[in-house]
Design brief:
2 domains; VC0802-like; Rossmann fold; ten-stranded mixed β-sheet; alpha/beta; about 40% helix; six-stranded mixed β-sheet; binds adenosine-5'-triphosphate; binds magnesium ion; about 400 residues; elongated; 15 helices
């Protein structure tokens, strides 16, 4: 093998991940006193050998989410650094960072050389903002241990300076913080951090099919799926004459809101009329049968899209279709795992999350959901055998396939 080929191969092999557009490099020396945003991974550190893949995904998600912001991305040991440009809008950047799954905390910090003298000088600048009413907690952490001083040395030097200025230092009842993080190339000082969205980077767990209604619950369930790194494929079943009905904009508006977290989505708008024609005589079983049908549709789409899980916004006992027996029966013939992240939630708890993620107001807008159109007195205990035989009599599996064929597919 010639030398040129070997060099090319080794460059490809050792390139840990393809660089997104905004990615500048690894472990770089920053400018003296440069302000950066430090982003921490949290749970990703538990991911053993796959950690590199998760971080690669996170960096690419950060790059996509901050695509309109003036930042450059650097990977530095246990964090990602965002270098700010002259047009950076720090508020907008922080709001966007709080929607990116896989980030445990982030903080605005200033950089200096990883030397005791430089750290002390920059810390003194931070301390100059405090007065004798301040009680400061000083914390230090070394991500790189090959330095000739340790965290205790840093804390005692900075604490000594604080005390000289009449500022109390304590780990209890403090009203200010100085956090010092040291890597091989840089030391970072910050005055506190913001909690991130947690979870795993979107896309790192593959895809999930999410049954999305116009209600409050299913967007919250979708958010919990995304939090575990699943890319959403929404399935919405509509009862309007066709997918161009203006009422359906409510559903796409909810998906667009959730896109702040997911970055991308795919949506199947599936007509319900093939089901309604077939199951016209299902009477009190129509509600459960329709949920069963939606799961058949979701299963068909999961197979087509290579998703492994189906999510719903069910909460045990919330409405007739969600009694334990009905949940058992509607999922009886479904091969895919049905995940119900809200199963133990009260409505109030669901509403609290819906408000936090910004879907609540959209969910309140008027909408005629197919589930609310059917039977006024639904069965609360449909036996699985009954649903199974109705499903087979009405040929629901085939009708699910036909409905998916007539679905309108949107990409967001
Ligand atoms: P939500 O539960 O979202 O508030 P809802 O209360 O109107 O809406 P339920 O009757 O509680 O809906 O339905 C339970 C679950 O079934 C929903 O959370 C959703 O996952 C699924 N679902 C209901 N209607 C539809 C629909 N038209 N299209 C797709 N999935 C639906
Ligand atoms: Mg509900």
């Amino acid at each position: 093998m010639n030398c040129f080929l070997l060099i090319i191969m080794s460059v490809c092999y050792f390139q840990p991940y393809p660089a997104p557009r905004r990615f500048q490099g690894f472990n770089m020396l920053l400018d003296e006193n440069e302000t950066v945003v430090s982003v921490r991974f949290g749970e990703l550190w538990l991911r053993g050998n796959n950690r590199g893949q998760y971080i690669k995904r996170l960096i690419s998600n950060i790059s996509a989410r901050l695509s309109s912001e003036d930042v450059k991305i650097i990977r530095e040991y246990d964090r990602v650094l965002l270098r700010l440009g002259s047009n950076s809008d720090i508020n907008a950047i922080q709001i966007k960072l709080s929607t990116i799954f896989g980030i445990s905390r982030f903080e605005l910090s200033q950089a200096t050389k990883p030397e005791l003298k430089s750290i002390k000088k920059l810390a003194a600048k931070f301390l100059s903002k405090y007065d004798s009413n301040s009680v400061v907690r000083i914390q230090s952490h070394r991500s790189y241990k090959g330095l000739n001083f340790n965290s205790m040395d840093v804390i005692s030097e900075v604490a000594e300076h604080a005390k000289k200025r009449g500022i109390a230092v304590s780990n209890r009842n403090f009203n200010a913080e100085i956090n010092i993080n040291i890597t091989k190339e840089n030391a970072f000082i910050s005055t506190g951090s913001t909690k991130g969205a947690g979870g795993l980077p979107i896309g790192s767990s593959g895809k999930a099919v999410l049954l999305l209604s116009g209600g409050i619950d299913s967007p919250v369930a979708a958010w919990y799926a995304m939090k575990r790194g699943l890319m959403p494929i929404y399935v919405h079943m509509y009862g309007y004459p066709d997918a161009s009905a203006k009422e359906l904009s409510k559903i796409t508006d909810i998906a667009s809101k959730l896109n702040e977290y997911s970055l991308h989505y795919k949506m199947y708008l599936v007509p319900s009329h093939y089901f309604q024609l077939a199951a016209i005589r299902s009477g009190r079983y129509e509600t459960v049968l329709m949920k069963h049908f939606m799961l058949l549709v979701a299963q068909k789409i999961a197979a087509k899209e290579g998703a492994q899980l189906i999510y719903t916004g069910d909460s045990i006992g919330q409405v007739a279709s969600q009694t334990p027996m009905n949940l058992f029966s509607e999922g009886y013939l479904i091969k895919y795992p049905i995940i119900r992240p809200l199963s133990g939630f009260d409505k109030e708890e669901i509403i609290k999350v819906a408000r936090q993620i910004g879907t609540y107001e959209l969910s309140l807008l008027p909408y005629m959901d197919v589930c609310s159109i059917n039977s006024k007195n639904p069965s609360t205990a449909a036996l699985p055998e009954v649903i199974k035989s109705m499903s087979s009599d009405y040929k629901l599996k085939r009708i699910a396939g036909k409905s998916v064929k007539h679905a309108q597919i949107l990409n967001g």
